[in-house]
Amino acid sequence: MTNAAIGIDGLCKTYQGGKRALDGVSFEVPQGSVFGLLGPNGAGKSTLINILAGLVNKTDGKATIWGFDIDDHPRNAKASIGIVNQEILFDPFFSPLETLEIQAGLYGVPKGKRRSMELLRAVHLEDKANAYARTLSGGMKRRLMVAKAMVHSPPVLVLDEPTAGVDVELRQQLWAYVRELNRGGVTVVLTTHYLEEAEELCDRIAIINHGTLIANKPTRELVGMAQEKVVEVTVDRDIVTAPDAACFQKIEVKAERTLVITYRKDQANAGQVLAAVQQDGFGIVDVSTREADLEDVFLNLTRAANA
């Protein structure tokens, strides 16, 4: 076994017809981490996850889960991972309790070691244990999918867009449970289109675009790559002509007395920007700033990769 929860080495997938979904992707997911796997639609994220799940055959490269090669030790690899897919997949005529019991049986978990009710309590579905699964709301079904993925107590949990269509309160409950699992030693891999979620939850983030890995860094380091910063300035009189200065990358008149100025942190600072506004004869009444976030980095990286 290696120290990586998941090891991806030169992974390639070319579908029939020539579409190359993955092109030599390599990265490791550290044990005990919350790891973000991001990318635009069609970037190759789901193909990669489906290869780990055993649903898609890779064309080339290697993949290990908890140290087990998916080709050499497929049973051990599958036993080491739980996957929550984007699609909600379970029999609507079984109750949540029956769904978990059946899934545990498929993984060979003895009856005495099954944790079905414990898992339902953890995802706030204990009161729905014996209801038909088809009567559950969308958010409840999502949470049941997470419980279903954990029936065999895997050390690695993959969440593929788990909060799509889930309201804010249920999303917070889901993340609270995921954090609890992570504190208990479960490695979590997350794909999401909610970039603020990834920024808040993930220790490290990899970004895939057109089947190629374009970034793989600790979250704070990745966010630090964004050099643009925005400052919104309210001045003491109506703006007839917007001020101009070399330190401004972009300036916009948002309202009669409000300027929105974009500058690069590696070329100027907020003090220089405000001084330039004052030199143009404006008095400053109020100032607010917006730091660059993961969304800015994501867009810059994917745009550069598409250029």
Automatic annotation (TrEMBL):
Entries under PROSITE patterns matching the protein: ABC_TRANSPORTER_1 (PS00211), ABC_TRANSPORTER_2 (PS50893)
SMART domains the record matches: AAA (SM00382)
Any single Pfam family the record assigns to this protein: ABC_tran
Domain of life: Bacteria
Bilayer-spanning residue ranges: none
Gene Ontology molecular-function annotations: ATP binding
InterPro entries assigned to the protein according to its UniProt record, in alphabetical order: AAA+_ATPase, ABC_transporter-like_ATP-bd, ABC_transporter-like_CS, ABC_transporter_ATP-binding, P-loop_NTPase
Residue intervals of the ABC transporter domain: 6-235
Keywords: ATP-binding, Nucleotide-binding, Transport
PANTHER family registered for this protein in UniProt: ABC TRANSPORTER ATP-BINDING PROTEIN, ABC-TYPE MULTIDRUG TRANSPORT SYSTEM, ATPASE COMPONENT
Identification of the protein by name: ABC transporter ATP-binding protein
Organismal lineage: Bacteria, Pseudomonadati, Pseudomonadota, Alphaproteobacteria, Sphingomonadales
